Amino acid sequence: QAGGAAGLAGAPSLDDLSPEERAQAEAMIQEMAQVQQQIAATPAGQLVANHAMGMYELAAIKLSTEPPLFAEAQLAIDAMAAVLDSVGDRLGEDLTPLREGLTQLQLAFITLKERGEDTGAGE
Predict the structure, then answer these.
(1) Are the CB atoms for 106 and 63 separated by under 8 Å?
(2) Residues 58, 59, 63, 64, CA torsion sign
């Protein structure tokens, strides 16, 4: 597994690295393997919920800029809604706070959009 990257086009072989670079590369490979093991051991629903939360955070950031980036926020909001609509019933206890967060985002989007239209600002 340590030389796995050598098979990629243009990727250096571990044999071409200095001892220090090789030790760093081997440590990174080992760390990546540990992360993969952690992901494999984590329930998929929990990981999907974490990604949905990332979409929430992305939308909130886009809405908090001045001026708000409505099209970008809308993409994140729509993606979060699509995930929750598609698989929300399989997210267990994470579904309720995610749905509440989605509702908050949608309300914030509408409020900011109306405020922007009142002042002639926005996208």
Answers:
(1) no
(2) negative
In 3D space, the residue among 104, 4, 113, 112 whose CA is nearest the CA of residue 56 turns out to be 104
Chain length of the chain: 123
Can you read off the two tokens belonging to residue 51?
């990604």
CA 57 to chain centre: 9
Single-letter residue type at 15: D
Identify the H or E element spanning 52: helix 44-64
Query: What is the DSSP secondary-structure string of 87-102?
Result: HGGGSGGGHHHHHHHH
Whether the ω angle into residue 67 lies within 30 degrees of 0, i.e. cis, is yes
Give per-residue pLDDT as tens, 89-108.
Answer: 999 999 999 999 999 999 99
Specify the 3-state DSSP secondary structure of 91. Answer: coil
Predicted confidence (pLDDT) per residue in 8-61, tens digit: 666 667 778 889 998 998 999 999 999 999 999 999 999 999 999 999 999 999
pTM: 0.75
Quick check: 70 and 123 in contact, CB under 8 A?
Answer: yes
